[in-house]
Amino acid sequence: MGKKGVLLINLGTPDSPSTADVRKYLREFLMDPRVIDINPISRTLLVKGIIVPTRGPKSAKLYQKIWDPKTGSPLLHYSILQQQLLQKRLGDDFIVELAMRYQSPNIESALERLKAALVDNIQVIPLFPQYASASTGSVYEKVMDLVGKWPTSPTISFINSFHDNKLMIEAFADNARKHKPETYDHILFSFHGLPQRQMIKSDHTHNHCLKSVDCCQTLTDKNKFCYSAQSYHTAKLIAKELEVPKEKYTVCFQSRLGSDPWVQPYTSEVVAQMAKEGKKRLLVFCPAFVADCLETIYEVTTEYGDEFKALGGEHVQLVESMNDSPKFIEALAGMVEKQ
């Protein structure tokens, strides 16, 4: 029997923090019809005519703030570590490759390496705990588009989501314990945002999404594919692991783009509300990310931290992502071995 293939796929990162490379990354990312799901002409005009020219230089400056002189992009650095550690954990019967949905290392090259190794099957693990069409769904589509062109292909399987993975939940809780959660006034679970229209599209019943203010707060058969509902469930499990009462934490969503309504509440508004209520110390989880990146290192620690202090708060503490957590590597190994 041949070896088994595993393909880890994260979102992506610019090749460097230069304006040119950041613009290249943004073009590929935002031109994905699953990311900005509007008609192609409008998307092209918006992305290439407005967002990339204006946001590119600004984003480049932010990437420069988090770029390590030795290891480069934090997201890529930790993703490589995850690939290496998982390979070591699984052993010689497996070949573990890493790819990014956008930019380098690209999915096509990783798949070609697995094909050349004559693997019996390929298990694809999109490194997004909660399912969304704009992330996991885009990975599915890209992988199947590429493999579909092969004359023959091995069995392909996907991990749909792992928002409730026990070891991942424990690992997030372990990371939080380093900061003594009991010493903070409030805890935020800040997930990456999505436009509400994408949430509505994911509602297979066509009569549940946004029909009530609490439609996402309990995971059910009706909303089991909903990114927001899975996010609330992840937060609930971490809070339970840490024995944090419901009144001491808030689920919110960050990184919105454009003027259309996105899933709410917005993290920036929650941070402002916490300051208004006299809260001084906030502990912030970002459980949509398994590797620290611009959205965690800069957006939470610096951007929200500065906003909170300007409004009278004292400190915003980020709970580190999975990065090279041994428990998370064991979680990934468990997903592979279960399949």
Summarize the structure.
This protein has 339 residues and is α/β, with parallel strands linked by helices. It contains eleven helices and eight strands.
Shape: globular
Low-confidence stretches: none
Radius of gyration: 20 Å
The tally of structural domains comes to 2
The secondary-structure class comes to alpha/beta
For the secondary structure, the number of strands is 8
Range of helix content: 40-55%
The strands making up the biggest β-sheet line up spatially as: 2-1-3-4
Element-level helix/strand string: EHHHEHEHEHEHHEHEHEH
Second rung of CATH, namely the architecture of the largest domain: 3-Layer(aba) Sandwich
What is the CATH class designation of the largest domain? Alpha Beta
**Main sheet record:** 4 strands, parallel
Percent strand: 5-15%
End-to-end gap: 17 Å
Describe the structure.
This protein has about 350 residues and is α/β, with parallel strands linked by helices. β3 (about 120-125), α5 (about 135-145) and β4 form a beta-alpha-beta unit. The protein folds into 2 domains: about 5-160 and about 325-339, Rossmann fold (3-Layer(aba) Sandwich); about 165-320, 3-Layer(aba) Sandwich (Rossmann fold), CATH 3.40.50.1400. The two termini are about 15 Å apart. It has helices at about 20-30, 40-65, 75-90, 105-115, 135-145, 165-175, 195-200, 225-240, 265-275, 295-310, 325-339, and strands at about 5-10, 95-100, 120-125, 155-160, 185-190, 250-255, 280-285, 315-320. It is globular and about 60 Å long. It has a 4-stranded parallel beta sheet, with helices on both faces. It has a 4-stranded parallel beta sheet with strand order 6-5-7-8, sandwiched between helices. It has 11 helices and 8 strands. About 45% of the residues lie in helices and about 15% in strands.
